[in-house]
Amino acid sequence: MTSDHDLDLSRIDPDRVPRHIGLILDGNGRWANRRGLPRTAGHLAGEEALFDTIEGGLALGVEWMTAFTFSTENWDRSGEEVEFLMWFNEDLLTRRRDELHAQGIRMAFSGAFEDPRVPERNRRHMAEAADLTADNTAMTVVFAFNYGSRHELVRAARLLAEDAVAGRIDPDQIDEESMEARFWLPDMPDVDLVIRSSGEHRLSNFLLWQSAYAEFSFPGILWPDFDRHALVEAVVDYQQRERRFGGAVDAVDDREGEPTS
Ligand code: IPE
Ligand code: MG
């Protein structure tokens, strides 16, 4: 693994680093195909990319990074690939857990873990990693595993309905906060920047609510080739954008470049 000193942060404004970056890891299969390798070889190669990118996030001072490691739609892949991804997600946790812990990283998990298709050992190792790293403060890394945003939203709606029927909440009082309080990770902040590697321009049911005002980056890099340097490029580009959150264009910006008289 490369070390921090080769990372060029000179173009980064430390006051405008995205607080939460979402990573849609895409292109592992194509990376492998191009080398005449099985798709699983692409997933294996994606591990180094993920952990190098996490180190880049740490060096940048990013507070939250959420990596989409398995979606609720990924069950439609071949049985062999699904089985591999279940094993790999679990194996990766056990091998990398102590290293992340030593870096002060809190590991968190978001997804439908009660799904009977999720193996018990995955559930157990996710819980152990979350417990071990619960008090770490350097950065939170979320593994979005068996994650689907619509599933998360429907679940929150169901929990609200149950609370309303039981008289614990007045339907008139339901607001954004009461929805968010019923998400898988209630303390997850909004996403500032979503990066999807491989050049595909889709959100694919990833953090739909949390990305309402996110900026998007679609580097044409297959995930196994992504790294901390590619992350810095995405953040440099992000910092050149003007975020308005639905507000008006700043009047001062409007006059920029125009004659003053
Ligand atoms: C992403 O790469 C890996 C996972 C979501 C598990 P893909 O497996 O989607 O690779 P492509 O898109 O087929 O190249
Ligand atoms: Mg893909």
Chain-wise SSE layout:
Elements: E1 20-24, H1 28-34, H2 39-60, E2 64-71, H3 79-102, E3 105-110, H4 120-133, E4 139-147, H5 149-165, H6 176-180, E5 193-196, E6 215-217, H7 228-239, H8 251-255
Parallel strand pairs: 1-2, 1-5, 2-4, 3-4, 5-6
Helix pairs in contact: 1-2, 2-3, 2-7, 3-4
The chain binds 3-methylbut-3-enyl trihydrogen diphosphate and magnesium ion (MG).
What does this structure look like?
This protein is of the alpha/beta class and 261 residues long. It has a domain at 16-147 and 191-238: Decaprenyl diphosphate synthase-like (Undecaprenyl pyrophosphate synthetase), CATH 3.40.1180. It has 8 helices and 6 strands, in the order βααβαβαβααββαα. It has a 6-stranded parallel sheet with strand order 3-4-2-1-5-6, sandwiched between helices. The radius of gyration is 20 Å and the shape is globular. The protein starts with 19 loop residues before the first strand and ends in a 6-residue tail after the last helix. It binds 3-methylbut-3-enyl trihydrogen diphosphate and magnesium ion. 3-methylbut-3-enyl trihydrogen diphosphate binds at residues 25-30, 43, 70, 74, 85, 198, 223.
